[in-house]
Amino acid sequence: MRVIILKYTVVSALVIASGAMLMDVSHHVQRAERDIKHLDREIAREEESIRVLKAEWAYLNNPVRLEALAADYVDLISPEAAQLISDMSVIPDNDPQASIFIPQRSPLHRDISYDASSPKPTQATYPTKHTNNTVSSHTNGGAR
Fold first, then answer.
1. Which of 81, 88, 91 is nearest to 137 (CA)?
2. Do the beta carbons of residue 107 and residue 93 sit within 8 Å?
3. Measured between alpha carbons, how far is 43 from 35 in angstroms, rounded to an integer?
4. What digits encode the pLDDT tens for the residues 13-65?
């Protein structure tokens, strides 16, 4: 009789322990599901915020809008062809008011023209000085 009582006691303890473990796991799963729903709502809010920011960025960078703002607030005009300098050697070095920084042309940034018959790039041609101070055309049509 003692053995049967001991068996039922052990089985009852195991049933109670497994029930407690099941409740604990169920509680953890419900908490994880709440966390997932909360994170999903947060992600949806952030995605909506990103969508609004992208739309605002597209509006703010609209070329027509920027051109209108520039026309209203900035008094810039395009230089005429006679105002462009093709050769930097014509700028005097001894002028104290001419303290303008002129960057050197980098060998990595140059105009490269391609010959239609060969896939290899040919040497680029740069503007040269003419007697009337105009810029000569590039071999690739001036495209960069």
1. 81
2. no
3. 12
4. 999 999 999 999 999 999 999 999 999 999 999 999 999 999 999 999 999 99
